[in-house]
From TrEMBL:
It comes from Lacihabitans lacunae. It holds the Pfam family TPR_8. Residues 360-379 are annotated as: Disordered. TPR repeats lie at residues 57-90, 260-293, 294-327. Residues 1-21 form the signal peptide. SUPFAM superfamilies: TPR-like (SSF48452). This is Tetratricopeptide repeat protein.
Length: 406
């Protein structure tokens, strides 16, 4: 009975996914809420269906949508790529691929979204996606164009106001951005991304209290959203609570051990508090896990430079140049360190010469003093003459004739 229920539930969801009706693209909240067991059951059924018929692109597409729903974007991308290979001219598959790539911040997302549009896949959800991708590329005029197009079809859709708010925030119009994000919440109160964007804006404009309060509420209401822990660390860093921010970043890294960018955050907080040994350890760890990334090497160089260890700084920049030999910033830093080392060598040579000259002068002065030193006082019977009057040299005595005698 239970198996029948799960099968029925899964199939109902899949039918709704494959529907080409307008309701499918109205961006509704999911009829399958975040019930992990239900998603796992649906995934299991789909996997069995794929084993039985591996050449059917529809099942890969549906499984990709399920993976996307539980935020398993890497597996979702694998499945949608399989679906697209089996049916490369499907605008629906191209759209789903672009959406998943957007979640992963892949640069190919815009290209695939536009390809879906070229396949005459005309839906407001695609227009919103293209607007967001253009906005990320700072093509704000194009983003507004697609937002206007989507708004004409669905004027009260929360996702339109969310993307509009993000687009305005990227242009620096934070007041209008906040207004649109709050409007998005009136249509969908449980949309995590809207809260996330509000928190980022509050943090950016130094409304630290508002950011922290809202962030704590979101952590409570969305306990599985680990990114909120990351947000909290950013807010604390912005507030100047550097040690607290570092502890929260470290806690987040334990939750997301593959987020190597967080190592950079932790290392910089060590660096800012002048804990150079801690910074070196973190940046070395980052460099070891990403050996082709020049950023940890640059930061290591900065740590060594702060300690006046220009040889070690130069070594790390040279490692980075081997990775990116045409990087002008790296070449500039290398020249700067070489100049500093040459300057220190000149200073050392001058100081050494000064010491040698001083030593030579002192030795000459000592020799001169020895030459001018008076003869030591004569001693009588081994004792000092002291105040005893010196014996005068005898003079010649002339003895004359005694005139008193006859």
């Amino acid at each position: 009975m239970r198996l029948f229920f799960l099968t029925f539930l899964c199939l109902g969801f899949l039918i709704s996914c494959s529907s080409d009706g307008r309701d499918k693209f109205a961006l509704p909240t999911s009829t399958l809420e975040s019930d992990e067991n239900q998603h796992l059951a649906a995934l299991s059924i789909l996997s069995d269906a794929i084993k039985n018929n591996p050449s059917n692109p529809v099942n890969y597409y549906k499984r990709a949508m399920l993976h996307e729903k539980i935020e398993n974007y890497a597996d979702a991308l694998v499945d949608i790529n399989r679906a697209e290979r089996l049916n490369p001219n499907s605008g629906l598959y191209l759209f789903e691929k672009a959406k998943i790539q957007s979640k992963l911040y892949k640069k190919e997302a815009l290209e695939n979204a536009l390809a879906a549009e070229n396949q005459n896949f005309e839906q407001p959800e695609l227009d919103v996606l293209i607007a967001e991708l253009y906005s990320r590329n700072k093509n704000f005029a194009k983003a507004d164009e697609y937002l206007k197009k989507a708004h004409e079809t669905y004027p009260y859709n929360y996702d339109i106001f969310l993307v509009k708010g993000k687009n305005l925030a990227r242009q620096g119009d934070t007041l209008s951005a906040i207004m649109n994000l709050n409007k998005s919440l009136t249509y969908q109160k449980n949309n995590f991304e809207t809260y996330d964007q509000l928190i980022k804006i509050y943090t950016g404009i130094n409304k630290i209290d508002s950011a922290l309060v809202l962030n704590e509420q979101v952590i409570k209401n969305f306990p599985k959203k680990k990114e909120m822990v990351y947000n909290k660390a950013l807010i604390l860093e912005k507030a100047g609570a550097l040690d607290s921010a570092r502890h929260v970043f470290e806690a987040f890294f334990k939750l997301e051990p593959n987020r190597n960018d967080v190592l950079g955050k932790i290392g910089m907080l060590y660096f800012k508090t002048k804990n150079y040994s801690g910074a070196q350890a973190i940046f070395n760890k980052w460099s070891n896990v990403e050996p082709e990334n020049i950023e940890p090497l640059q930061k290591l160089a900065a740590v060594y430079e702060a300690q006046d260890n220009f040889n070690a700084a130069k070594e790390n920049i040279e490692k980075a140049i081997k990775i990116e030999p045409n990087n002008k910033t790296l070449v500039y830093d290398l020249n700067r360190y070489n100049y500093k080392l040459d300057e220190l060598a000149r200073i050392y040579e001058a100081q050494n010469q000064y010491r040698l000259n001083r030593k030579y002068k002192e030795e000459n002065d000592q020799n001169a003093n020895l030459k001018e030193k008076p003869e030591p006082e004569r001693r009588i019977f081994g004792g000092s003459i002291g105040n005893i009057e010196k014996i005068q040299k005898r003079t010649t005595v002339i003895i004359g004739k005694d005139s008193t005698r006859n």
